Amino acid sequence: MKKKLFIFIYCSLIALLTSCSNYLDVQPKGQIIPKTAEDFSTIIHYWLDQIEKGADDVIISSSAEKVTLETFAEDLNATLASNYSYTNIYVGSAINKNQNFYQTLYSVIKDCNMIIGNMEDTESELARTLLGTAWSIRSICYYNLMLRYCEPYRPETAIETLGLPLVNEFNMEDKPARANLKETAEFIEKGLQKAISYNVVNEDFLFTSSVAKAYLARLLFWTQDWNNAITYAKEVLEKYPMLEANEFVEAINQKQKKTHNVIIRSFTEDDNIGALNYNTAQSDIRKRPVDKNLIDLFAITPNDIRQTCSYDSKRLVTKVVTSKLRSEELCLIIAEAYAHLPNKEAEALNYLNLLRSKRITQDYTAYTMNDLPEVFPQLITTDATGTPLTKLMSAILCERRKEMFVEGDRWFELKRNGCPEFWIAANGKKFITEKYLYSYPIPKTDINLFPGLIIQNPGYEK
Q: In the prediction, which pLDDT does 178 show?
């Protein structure tokens, strides 16, 4: 692909540009920076190439990173793991890695700021595509940072909650403090809206306007802006229809096949790094059996095709771990968002049943409000607003748990819905996932570099 020709040029440019060791605010002094759209395209193409090779762990994430997230949650039984040598026992085992994630994301943000703030050409087709892509990637990086390094979003407390340092320009003199969480969410939303305004359609750049809209739906869902989350999720869902049952069985366990429900994905080209990440993920995910609680959840609904696609008779995972954003997630976003709105239970039920009808192959019966199953016993007992689960909300969350199994989603669902504490026994010790562990620590290097500006997350002060 054409962008691979740019990789050497990109590396040369970055070598010239990174005269300062701080990844937050690199600004060359006495050096020449790229000016033309063609020059700047080398920067974007480097990150696109990393995604397509399956080597990116921070923007879209590799299969291996998805497995890391799964080891933090409870769907895979850590107590019964066959081997802890190459996987995390629990989230507390990955504190150092989680700090590195922060630094790499800000490095990507720095590259995007370089394009947004320094490219003289802003009107050519290539320039507009680059700008739209840069705005998308930068906003997605901040979204990924917010999910990991900030507390769950609560509209009533967002102004008092710590957000992120918001670096919006390529300037080494800027040393921003942590904004509040409301400011952070608004910053990301404006960035995604800006990306959408460029209407990127060239799929060689991966981050089309549809991708930006899908991430905007995710963001608005996370920040509990239910109405607008529905609007954007519906628009993308219409363009990327969900898979029918026979399509799902054929596609879900394929490594690289792109089906009509996939909005964006990682690892689309054969490469040694991507193959290593992919093969490692498939091996590591089978070191832990599926937790009995999830087995019991699947048992409630006979003829659910996801059960046989997910694990075998020994409770070992058979579902192939890939990294992609699928339209089925948007259907679940719509269903839950409606469930949070007054007098919209019928609409929520409609989208819940829409997905169920595509996953239950025989004797399918749509739920009605009168025959919803009882609230399923699990770690999550309250919804994103802190309200005890209703039957409808429980059914939606359970459907999401089954649909998104081993796709790196469950950890953030636990965080979004109450940060429940739980423990596992391993190697003769008890490991507790406490509430504070749901938000990763800010790297100590940043705390030391910007004393008084970058405040450490609670629980990691010492």
A: 94
CATH, range 2-449: 1.25.40.390
Write the pLDDT tens digit of every residue in 125-178. 999 999 999 999 999 999 999 999 999 999 999 999 999 999 988 765 667 899
Tokens of 107: 């490095």
Q: Left (φ > 0), alpha (ψ -120 to 50) or beta: where does 120 sit?
A: alpha
For 293: left if phi > 0, alpha if psi spans -120 to 50, otherwise beta; the answer is alpha
The helix-helix angle for 95-118 and 37-52 (nearest 10°) equals: 150
Q: At what angle do helices 345-356 and 327-340 cross, to 10 degrees?
A: 160
Return the structure tokens found at 307: 């059960």
Q: Which residue has the tokens 């895979």?
A: 76
Distance CA 101, CA 186 (A): 22
- Enumerate the β-bridge partners of residue 265: 324
Neighbouring residues of 292: CB distance < 8 A, sequence distance ≥ 6: 77, 315
pLDDT mean across residues, the chain: 91
Question: How many other C-beta atoms are found inside a 10 Å radius of the C-beta of residue 333?
Answer: 27
The DSSP bridge partners found for residue 431 are: 424
Strand partners, 424: 431
**Rounded distance between C-alpha atoms, residue 5 and residue 56, angstroms:** 18
Cβ atoms of residues 364 and 244 within 8 Å: no
With a CB cutoff of 8 Å and minimum separation 6, the contacts of 452 are 177
88 touches 433 (CB < 8 A): no
DSSP character for 199? -
Structural domain boundaries of the chain? 2-449
